[in-house]
Amino acid sequence: MTMIRQATMQDTTAICRMDAMVLGNTSRAQELCESVAAGDCYVAYLDTDIIGFVIMNQSFFKQSFIQHLIVHPQYQNQGIGEDLMLHMEAVCPKDRLFTSTNLSNKKMQRLCHKLHYIQSGIIDNLDPGDPEVIFCKQIRKYAPKTYPSKVQTI
């Protein structure tokens, strides 16, 4: 069972290390630390190891937006990304949740489609030759006792 909790400042080293491993550089380290400090970051963990993280904020036209979703390469294709997305839907303060990914990121696009996000637009010229695809999902609010999730939140 995936365990998910809000990230703490003690998690920033593991978060930044994992992000650099997946991204290939450390360019987002400051941004990640700021997101943790702001309470916008959640981590998936197994035992004491952080195996993924997600950042959701209100930066997209004052709407809830999943800005980053990263799963450690060793734990990819095991449902961790899906669990993190479902958790964000559960804690989302708005009635819609947005996210985006590059057109070349087929894994994230498949995840969005699987979770019933709809394509809401494309932005050119952010990454040359690789447009950004915007997705949105209308969030249904579930009472905490009936939220259908296999995620254990502490």
Round the Cα radius of gyration to an integer and report it.
15 Å
For the record, the CATH architecture stands as 3-Layer(aba) Sandwich
Indicate the mean pLDDT.
92
Q: What about the largest sheet? A: 8 strands, mixed
What's the helix count?
A: 4
Classify the oligomer. Answer: single chain
The proportion of residues in beta strands is 25-35%
What gap, in angstroms, lies between the N and C termini? 13 Å
- Give the C-level CATH assignment: Alpha Beta
Walk across the major sheet and give the strand order: 6-7-5-4-3-2-1-8
Helix-strand makeup class = alpha+beta
Tally of domains: 1
Helix content: 25-40%
State the CATH superfamily name.
Answer: Gcn5-related N-acetyltransferase (GNAT)
Run of helices and strands:
EHHEEEHEHEEE
Q: Uncertain regions: pLDDT < 50 for 5+ in a row? A: 143-148
Protein name: GNAT family N-acetyltransferase
InterPro entries: Acyl_CoA_acyltransferase, GNAT_dom
